[in-house]
Amino acid sequence: MGSLIQLYGTTGGIGSTGTFQLTSVWLLSPVQTITIPKGTVAKIWSKHVTGQPVTVNLLYSNDGTNFRVVESETLGTTGETSPNNKRKPIILPSVNGVEAFQLQWSQTSGYVSSVQFDVEFGEYDLEG
Fold first, then answer.
1. Going from the N-terminus, what domains does the chain have, and what CATH number goes with each?
2. Which of 47, 54, 58, 120 fits 113 for a cystine, CB–CB 3.0-4.6 Å?
3. Which of 11-20, 75-84, 89-98 has the lowest mean pLDDT?
4. Is 10 helix (H, G, I), strand (E, B) or coil?
5. What percent of the chain has pLDDT over 70?
């Protein structure tokens, strides 16, 4: 098993779209993009969205610049999503060391919403 970290972000209440500034006790300062070290994987085990209605997109890039949506989570009403702890993780591999991921958000107005992702970084393992 690799290192499990929690990443946090908030929409800030300004604007209707954006990229989360992610924070963690493991990070020295907020970042928008997490680069996955070469030969490892990032496993997204769980995510938790709270606050006002928002859609959170997990984006992945295999070249560090062109991102695509790999999963979305929508909070349709004020409140919070229910974590699904029984599912397999989302696995984001890094072959060249340039692969990366981001979390983006979209809302109908400038509401305040938050996200927490539990991410494990470890060696690439074909068995998951």
1. 3-123 (2.60.120.40)
2. 54
3. 75-84
4. strand
5. 92
Round to whole Å and give the CA distance between 11 and 17: 8
Mean pLDDT within 1-29: 89
Q: Round to whole Å and give the CA distance between 45 and 76.
A: 22
How far is 89 from 125, CA to CA, in rounded Å? 13
Whether the CB-CB separation of 114 and 56 falls below 8 Å is answered with: no
The stretch 45-53 carries a mean pLDDT of: 92
Residues 6+ apart with CB under 8 A from 113: 10, 11, 49, 50, 51, 52, 53, 54, 75, 105, 107
Rounded to whole angstroms, the Cα distance separating 112 from 109 reads 9
DSSP-derived secondary structure letter, 107: -
Q: How many CA atoms lie within 13 A of 1 on its CB side?
A: 6
Q: In the block, which residue shows the tokens 């859609």?
A: 55
Rounded to whole angstroms, how far apart are CA atoms 84 and 72?
14
What is the C-alpha radius of gyration for the chain, rounded to an integer number of angstroms?
Answer: 14
